[in-house]
Amino acid sequence: xxxxxxxxxxxxxxxxxxxxxxxxxxxxxxxxxxxxxxxxxxxxxxxxxxxxxxxxxxxxxxxxxxxxxxxxxxxxxxxxxxxxxxxxxxxxxxxxxxxxxxxxxxxxxxxxxxxxxxxxxxxxxxxxxxxxxxxxxxxxxxxxxxxxxxxxxxxxxxxxxxxxxxxxxxxxxxxxxxxxxxxxxxxxxxxxxxxxxxxxxxxxxxxxxxxxxxxxxxxxxxxxxxxxxxxxxxxxxxxxxxxxxxxxxxxxxxxxxxxxxxxxxxxxxxxxxxxxxxxxxxxxxxxxxxxxxxxxxxxxxxxxxxxxxxxxxxxxxxxxxxxxxxxxxxxxxxxxxxxxxxxxxxxxxxxxxxxxxxxxxxxxxxxxxxxxxxxxxxxxxxxxxxxxxxx
Length: 391
Known about the structure:
Layout: E1 13-14, H1 25-31, H2 47-67, E2 74-77, H3 80-92, E3 101-105, H4 110-117, E4 125-129, H5 139-143, E5 150-156, H6 168-178, E6 182-185, E7 204-208, E8 219-223, H7 238-241, H8 249-287, E9 292-293, E10 304-308, H9 314-323, E11 326-327, E12 329-330, E13 333-335, E14 338-340, H10 343-347, H11 352-356, E15 358-362, H12 369-390
Parallel strand pairs: 1-11, 3-4, 3-5, 5-6, 6-7
Antiparallel strand pairs: 2-8, 7-8, 9-10, 10-15, 12-15, 13-14
Helix pairs in contact: 1-8, 2-8, 3-4, 8-12, 9-12
């Protein structure tokens, strides 16, 4: 790669796994001839269809093992967003007239707010439970909002921007006692830490293939046995009549392979990523003493670092790092061409200016110590460059 000033850089370093993770080699191997050879429709009775169905059911078992649920609980979707939408709409469409409140955390993914608020015209209300300055929602405070009028409670397991883990088990157990369905957004936590027997406290889990090294276009919603949802996609008997439409077979097969790879490597991988994260935070604190980490005091995923350098705009720093060969994210989301400050960081009591300064580094299976060291060498240079340009 050649920079604008003529300097040649090494191979690019991808540090944005929470956005999407590069496809794992195990996934490419599992796909084999499914890409080059026309595959049958799993709903067809011929040999090609039966082979497709067998492959899909094997993937269902692999994903179910990762999620810690029976394979019959898995409903394949087009991704994590559809899984969340399917749960919210599926519950609300069947809600009795007296249940009209949806309780959510204040740092949820935007799809949660969008799906829940879409029911405002039908007189549903959305109650947001605030988080503390480290981004953690207090379970007692959350459960205090859950009452007889609550149709659904939603809480993410791990935040995509900060990696902060939420007390989903405590909240889920409280919701179970209250008889309120509980949806857990497990998109970021899946593959990074064991989910255990999540079905013991969660009625629904949302998962995504491309976040764990699979292909985009596949996700899953786990549905606890005995729960009936109104389908998001009508008109077909696929997915046990829970989601009509022909499934994206290659993406589903890749999802299964990625899930199995995560399970095989989880114990060693979690420790490896934790060491890389610790090195980043320790070294950055020494190299940039005024740096501020967000959510650092909370229990977090082992792969995520969110920080800001006072006086440095996150977007400008991200662009500089990109030109230097490093892919990171800002703490902002782009909408209609405008960069908006992160609602997550603002919920954590950061000012709009502070939120605009945020950078997220999210590590994954493809990252190495050598890449981290290269990043640590370049980041202070970019900060100095931006500061000198302003003088």
